[in-house]
Specification:
The protein is an alpha+beta fold and 141 residues long. It is 27% helix and 45% strand.
């Protein structure tokens, strides 16, 4: 793997660890201030015409509050992630990671919130750090 590919593996693994440990401070470290995160209505909503925004442009306080609510109301049952592809731009300043995820949350009544499918995480190199600029919601293929 190239140096840049290893750096992308590290940031994907850091995000996974942040979800596993419910560490909002660690999760915050991966996002660019201009990050946006569109979500499909269902894991079968492949057409972006059906996508929506849930949180708006990255805002540390708003996004942290959303995650605090998730962590307060759900327990993490499992969080399995596999990097399927990493692509680095020729200029070495942009990257994407295709990741298959299977993340299952359950609330106190055992109602499930299941994130299962494939995502595309898009990064930009800012100075000497990679920051996530865009992320698709979970889609099943």
């Amino acid at each position: 793997m190239t140096k840049e590919e290893l750096e992308i593996v590290e940031i994907v693994n850091r995000e996974t660890e942040a979800w596993n440990t419910q560490n909002i401070d660690k999760l915050i470290t991966i996002f660019h201030p201009d990050m946006v995160w569109p979500w499909p209505k269902t894991s079968q909503s492949h057409d972006p015409l059906e996508w929506e925004f849930v949180l708006g442009r990255f805002n540390k306080d708003r996004w942290s509050k959303n995650w605090q609510e998730l962590f307060a109301n759900y327990r993490l049952v499992h969080n399995n992630r596999e990097i399927r592809k990493i692509l680095i731009t020729n200029e070495r300043d942009g990257a994407l990671a295709v990741v298959d995820i299977d993340t299952l949350w359950a609330d106190k009544e055992n109602n499930k919130n299941h994130w299962k499918g494939r995502v595309c995480k898009v990064y930009a190199k800012i100075d000497d750090q990679w920051k996530m600029t865009m992320h698709t919601g979970v889609l099943e293929y």
